[in-house]
Amino acid sequence: MGDGLPKIEVFPDYFEASTSTGDCFEKNNSNNSHPRTEYSLRSRGHFWSRKLIRATAMLNFFGGQGLHWGSGTSDKVELTTAEVKSLQSEIADLEEREAHLRAQLEHLDEVLRSARLSGYLFIRSRWTALPGEPPIIDSDVDDWLPRFVVLHGLCIFFYLLSTDLSPQDSTLLSDIVEVGPLPSFVQEDEQTRYSFYILTCHGLKYECASLSEIQVDSWLKALRTACELGNDDTEAVKGTSKS
User: Fold this and answer.
1) Strand order of the sheet with strand 145-152?
2) Residues 132, 167: one domain?
């Protein structure tokens, strides 16, 4: 251990004002009895101006060229004509998108309020083969697709999504000649699906399925009532098959 305490080196503070100015400022503060003359106020102004200028210089140095302090004027962003047109186009696209979404919500609200029955079902189509013709599609093909089905007015509408404004397909109730249950089946997800069919006078057969047996029963009852087909005493087949 050395003799005595280690020496402390004092570095000058480059952010402090000059000695003469600092002494003048300290004297003015220490002696409250002296009146504030114009000279003392001016000295204070010069003192803080130099402090601000030095601080501004450091901020500009570390902050990059994008910062401008002490200029007294706010920076303005100037856009080219192409940029203005691009922004206007984006705003127009957003307004159009908003109008489309509003129309979708209004359509869905109208459907839910006025439809006899609506909901998502798994649908696949089959055509009745003419005598001597082979089946157009193999019955074992797994082509079930989810569709939003709406029973409204004199038609059945098939939408891809519930928010779509236009249906993908539709069928008149007057063209429906038969509605009945189909055997339930189990798919690869090991969930049982209950199904029924809708047959038209044109030979088009819609096969519909749902995970809910109650939903299938509701559709059968609603379709028979709407098409005036009467109640069918034949119960849904309870057996299962792979599809």
Assistant:
1) 169-172, 155-159, 145-152, 117-127, 204-210, 192-200, 176-186
2) yes
The predicted structure's pLDDT at residue 110: 82
Q: Which residues, in sequence order, are CB contacts of 156 under 8 Å at separation 6+? A: 149, 150, 170, 171, 173, 176, 198, 223
pLDDT over 90, % of the chain: 30
Residue carrying structure tokens 């074992």: 140
Asked whether the whole model's pTM tops 0.85, one would answer no
Name the domain count of the chain.
3
Q: pLDDT of 86-98, one tens digit each? A: 888 899 899 998 9
221: in domain:
yes
Check whether residue 110 and residue 195 sit in a common domain. Answer: no
Range of the domain at 102: 80-114
